[in-house]
């Protein structure tokens, strides 16, 4: 219940809002910005000049308007000059990307991670090495305005410490601080839960764009969740919100890495599928999950039964979340894309049994449109958050 | 991503913010408003004069300051002159209240409701009759600025239709429209789910004031939920958010009124407790629940076992919600106050088993501080929402 904003607050808000239009929607004419933002032409002109002078956008004549009269200038993000570093730490994979304003992935590196103890020094060294390589390839006048990482675990929002990550074997790891130190860019590294960031990515520029209430379910060994309610990510009191993988769906069921039993993750995760299919103990990872789905598709009865079992539990979990959140859309990401595509009938039949009619009648079930890049794209959006909320200040700092 | 607000928007925002301070916090000095709202003295003076002229607040000299110098005027809500009607429709009870600005319940009526078919005409006639009685007792210059109702069921946010309410036997009932017609005040009646409004009440002026992430669980025959995340109520895409009573906690468990099995409501609701205690079929309602808790307290083993069983399922449900939302506080309201107080040990032991450590280590479990008035108080807050967002306009309309 603070007072309304000052003139300076309003200008900062408008600069951020305009930059966000360009960042999320791509090149856009001044005329269109005038209409979408509800500001007059001279204000839009003043805002775009400020952003142009700061090197965040540039204005160009459109190629061909097909109309008479002077065409409206098109405002484009300076994708090659203004960028962030995004990182992704999963159980089996390390990834890093240099992402330009506007969301363009300019450069990208990946490494396989062996499942085993979480070696903070080694892991941050690999990621910082990737960043150095990518920085060398950037233009001389390009400027890094932020850095963020997606991690498969629960992250304390105040300081980016990974409090738990059973599938990374991480506990109480000061990951953000250490990665920032290794990067040596003079920038903090924001850290977020990978499923939360995947939700943010699908909401910003994926299948969930324009959807204000969505549940994103991310499978990668375990099951994570990111929930957008009324346009806001549910972070929780300390940042651990969205841990739907540890909702108990089957009391007395399979043991879970978290210490409990019958969690959604324990019944639907990689191990549950591979064990049910009689394939546990050999090859693990995304390919092994796909192999079960493909075998089921070819008529392998054991694989079909395994997929059916996992699909039933997945459907029960989704029904619970649909009752709790009344989302417009549920999005299946990571390995859950494969599982959902192989078990959609189970999921739908469980929804019919357990979700209330008003909650499910308009519900849309979708697979992630960003695919395995969702968590990395979400980390990039987290890294861009500061520059979008105060463009000139952040750019001035980055140049300093 | 619209543009920043106009001067007029800012004035309206500030008027609403000031009125909200007075409405929720009670009488407050101009000096304190200056400091809390971050506005200068002359702006606060101009805002309070506008609100005073409109008859929403009045300014008075404080009784005793104990300090030298001219004392700062105290701004008070005009509780007797500006009021709303709040209604509450539960399975066993109909309630109506006239609530003054500032949250004071000025007058109140209640009637017992027989469980059975939802008789829209009869029910709205009773409530409208209560409102007429209470209106007659109001001062001649008092003005009604809003009306809202809490209903034990799922309410479509667009039009206030009760889509489902198994415990009211209501389905597709245009409740808000009909009650507005019967009231004949020329005002619409906002309708909300009772547990959602209970959450709002505890968040506004109950045990959850100043708590931005909370789960409110409301027991009244069935189990409802209201969730506040980051200060916002989770309404969902169409308004059915928070139906945690229909989260399946025990697949293959007891049949639920919603058509599913093993829902939290089916395992923890009134019927589950009474059946487990061998008391189903006789007396029902809040007193019958209290009787089981009291019998357990006196050493009745059957009652103790029943309470233990129900407490285990309640604890499992709470653990799931704690993992999903990472709330700072869980509040037990309605008959769940009694059940929680009788089964706190079960709830805590289930939390220790199933909730992740970072989510539970700072969690506070509390009983509702507004008690049975929570849902009615929440309805009053919903009715005041318009006048708090645009005080002068709403008051001008009310006088017109």
Automatic annotation (TrEMBL), chains A, B:
GO terms for molecular function: kinase activity. It holds the Pfam family ROK. Keywords: Kinase, Transferase. It comes from the Bacteria. The keyword Kinase applies. Belongs to the ROK (NagC/XylR) family. This is Sugar kinase of the NBD/HSP70 family, may contain an N-terminal HTH domain.
């Amino acid at each position: 219940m603070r007072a309304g904003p000052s003139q300076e607050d309003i200008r900062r808000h408008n600069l951020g809002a305009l930059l966000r239009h360009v960042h999320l929607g791509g090149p856009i004419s001044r005329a269109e910005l005038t209409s979408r933002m509800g500001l007059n032409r001279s204000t839009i002109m003043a805002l775009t000049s400020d952003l142009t002078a700061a090197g965040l956008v540039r204005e160009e004549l459109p190629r061909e308007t097909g109309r008479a009269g002077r065409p409206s200038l098109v405002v484009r993000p300076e994708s090659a000059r203004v960028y962030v570093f995004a990182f992704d730490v999963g159980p089996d994979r390390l990834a890093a990307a240099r992402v330009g304003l506007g969301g363009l992935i300019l450069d990208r590196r990946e490494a396989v991670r062996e499942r085993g103890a979480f070696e903070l020094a080694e892991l941050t060294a690999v990621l910082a090495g990737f960043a150095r390589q990518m920085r060398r390839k950037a233009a001389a006048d390009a400027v890094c305005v932020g850095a963020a990482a997606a991690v498969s675990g629960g992250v304390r929002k105040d300081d980016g410490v990974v409090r738990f990550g059973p599938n990374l074997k991480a506990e109480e790891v000061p990951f953000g601080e250490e990665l920032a130190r290794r990067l040596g860019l003079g920038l903090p590294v924001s850290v977020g839960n990978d499923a939360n960031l995947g939700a943010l990515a699908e909401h910003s520029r994926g299948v969930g764009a324009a959807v204000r209430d969505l549940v994103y379910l991310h499978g990668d060994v375990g099951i994570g969740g990111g929930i957008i309610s009324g346009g806001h990510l549910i972070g929780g009191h300390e940042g651990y919100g969205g841990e739907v993988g540890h909702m108990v769906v089957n009391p007395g069921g399979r043991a879970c890495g978290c210490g409990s039993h019958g969690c959604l993750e324990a019944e639907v995760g990689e191990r549950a599928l591979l064990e049910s299919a009689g394939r546990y103990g050999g090859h693990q990872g995304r390919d092994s999950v796909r192999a079960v789905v493909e075998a089921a598709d070819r008529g392998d009865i054991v694989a079909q039964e395994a997929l059916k079992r996992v699909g039933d539990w997945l459907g029960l979990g989704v029904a619970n979340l649909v009752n709790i959140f009344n989302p417009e859309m549920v999005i299946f990401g990571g390995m859950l894309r494969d599982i959902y595509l192989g078990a959609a009938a189970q999921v739908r039949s469980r929804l019919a049994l357990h979700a209330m009619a008003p909650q499910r009648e308009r519900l849309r079930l979708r697979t992630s449109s960003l695919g395995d890049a969702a968590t990395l794209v979400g980390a990039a959006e987290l890294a861009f958050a500061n520059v979008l909320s105060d463009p000139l200040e952040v750019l001035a700092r980055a140049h300093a």
